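User: My advisor, Dr. K., asked me to get a structural model of this assembly before our group meeting. I'm new to this, so sorry if the format is off. These are the inputs:
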Amino acid sequence: MLCAVLAGFLLLAPEALANFITPKSGGSPNANHIHSLYDIILYLAAIVAVLVEGALLYSVFRFRARKSRVAAQIHGNTRLEIGWTVAAAMILVVLTVVTFVKLPSIVNPPNSSANGLVLSASVNEPTPPSGKKLTVCVQGRQFIWRYVYGNGCDQHAFSLKLPYSYTTMVVPEHTTVVLTIQSTDVIHSWWIPSLGGKVDAVPGYTTYTWFKALHTGTFRGQCAQLCGNGHAQMIAFVKVVTPWEYSTCLARQNQLLCSQSGQLKQLRQELTALNLLGK
Ligand SMILES: [Cu+2]
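Assistant: The format is fine. Below is the predicted structure of the whole assembly, which you can bring to the meeting.
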């Protein structure tokens, strides 16, 4: 009876509890591979748990203490002991092989799709086989995420006058996006669950991850490393749009940044002049 209930639970679980007891997925191939690997391990572990607990409960009930009955002892039964040692080892071997088979698809970025954006290559970041990707630099600081778009963003963001944004990252769909992750103060952790695993932003180091959004939409994430008293506010959004919308959005962002830096320059001049007048 108990086994039937647990088996029913396992059968229904993928539908009823999608992304509840398993990692979020659906936004990017790496997130999907993490999800399916997690599923395989979870269900194997669940089967082992049901078998072991079932045997235990059955034995407790069936062989409970009764007058004038002595339980049979199986200690020292070589066949049985070799059997369950080999079975446990085989399960671990299967899990290891499955993990190593799936790992490359989680770590290595694939090519952008034909309808994605055509982009440039660079040398030190994870690169898809075609070499074409979109680079976005993610910078964690207490307590906000900053994104700079385009090649060279990790070193020459200011001299190249690259467009940037805070909190919400805009990216095109079907395009391999490689993230270059840095921190300016303490350790933060970049994590948009539907778009893949989390990666730490460590001061003094550059870490990398990637995603390839499978459809448009907005994905929410949160800094996953306690980084100070404003940690809870350090949320992040990835807004996935069509490649055309992305190009338009980037051009608009450039224009806005340009006009604002013009205004800033003017304001600085005025303040400097006032200061000089005051002296
Ligand atoms: Cu944080």
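One thing worth pointing out at the meeting: The two ends are 90 Å apart (CA to CA).

User: Perfect, thanks a lot.
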